[in-house]
Amino acid sequence: MTEPFFTFDDELDLRFERIVDIKPELVWAAWTQPEHLVHWFTPAPWKTIACEIDLRPGGIFRTVMQSPEGQEFPGTGCYLDVVENERFVWTSALGPGFRPNAPEPDAMFFTAMISIEPDGDGTKYTAVAIHRSKEDRKKHEDMGFEHGWGKALEQLVEYMKSV
Amino acid sequence: MTEPFFTFDDELDLRFERIVDIKPELVWAAWTQPEHLVHWFTPAPWKTIACEIDLRPGGIFRTVMQSPEGQEFPGTGCYLDVVENERFVWTSALGPGFRPNAPEPDAMFFTAMISIEPDGDGTKYTAVAIHRSKEDRKKHEDMGFEHGWGKALEQLVEYMKSV
After folding, report:
1. Which end of chain A has the smaller Cβ count within 10 Å, N or C?
2. Phi then psi for B112, rounded to 5 degrees?
3. CA–CA separation, B158 vs B163, rounded Å?
4. CA-based nearest residue to A80, from A10, A5, A153, A137
């Protein structure tokens, strides 16, 4: 895995790595096509009820998550770097057109990098969450980063095997 | 001028346009090489006493400005989009490696786009500052956006004619 534009910082960043048994192209499709993403993005019983993707630097990445109680959590970020079937980066600190986002109360901005590469008949999947502070890293960890991304990835694999 | 990834918003953004009588390549060099940038970036009697540039998406754009009283104002952002001799975009909302920046008290994040194109023997120069809110736009305007960017550009032209 190449990380050409940033250095992983153990004190600030979180990393999630797995090998999954579907091809990189299927992982890519699951992450980059709204009609796929809504099926797996949020660990059940949460739902993703809307998704908008403009897959290019400066393009929008918007989702609306819904809690089991029906409360909606919209989030709008933008893509920063896209290399098809290899890697993409987006951030919650900027919206479409690279416009700075206004922080919500207690919000935690982060930049995420998803990297995929072939691994036998499957895919090595790496997700990195990049934070501005140790506090934000801890907040993200305490929110259940490892478990949440793991469950979402399991849903992704199961869903993509079914389509 | 093409603005492929964002739409100018009169309520949120500021635009500065001028025609200058040096070639686009000289304007580009002035903005992208630290040894040039320190000579013109800050309207006198302020000074730019340090500059670091890694001109690629995710690369650092760091300056240290110094007030006439000797107080230093460091700023670290990152580039988002670079098209040589045409356009570059950077933001103060992210640092190198696309890492979200921690806001300073009363800080105002913005994304800036500098576009240049040939205009006869000179250059049409456009700077756009992109804000998250009307309040940040007004704060930037009140800080003297138009005057400051104008004076810096005059310094840029004068300096580049001398090198």
Report:
1. C
2. -120, 140
3. 9
4. A5
ipTM for this prediction: 0.92
Round to whole Å and give the CA distance between A30 and B114: 35
Q: Please say if the pLDDT value at position A90 is more than 60.
A: yes
CA distance A114 to A32: 11
Determine the Cα–Cα distance for residues A110 and A129; give it in Å rounded to an integer.
6
Closest CB from B57, B100, B136 relative to A93: B100
Phi, psi of A6 (to 5 degrees): -155, 160
Q: What angle do CA A54, A58, A60 make, to 5 degrees?
A: 40
CATH 3.30.700.30 assigned to A19-162:
no
The tokens of B37 are what? 């940038």
Does the global pTM surpass 0.90? yes
Exposed / middle / buried, residue B113 (Cβ in 10 Å: 0-12, 13-18, 19+) = buried
Query: Per CATH, which fold does B13-162 belong to?
Result: Alpha-D-Glucose-1,6-Bisphosphate; Chain A, domain 4 (3.30.530)
Which residue bears the tokens 């890697």? Answer: A87
- Report the residue count for chain B: 163
Cα(A40)–Cα(A160) distance, rounded to whole angstroms? 9
- Could you say which of B7, B59, B81 has the minimum Cβ distance to residue A5? B59
Instruction: Say which of A12, A59, A102 has its CB closest to residue B5.
Output: A59
Q: Which helix (H) or strand (E) holds B27?
A: helix B24-32
- Mean per-residue pLDDT, B48-55: 97
CB contact under 8 A, A81 and B98: yes
Residue A66 token pair: 């819904």
Query: Residue B1 pLDDT > 80, yes or no?
Result: no
CA distance A147 to chain B (A): 23
Q: Do A6 and B133 touch (CB under 8 A)?
A: no
CA angle B21/B90/B70 to nearest 5° reads 80
Is A80:A45 a contact under the CB 8 Å cutoff?
no
Q: What angle do CA B62, B67, B71 make, to 5 degrees?
A: 80
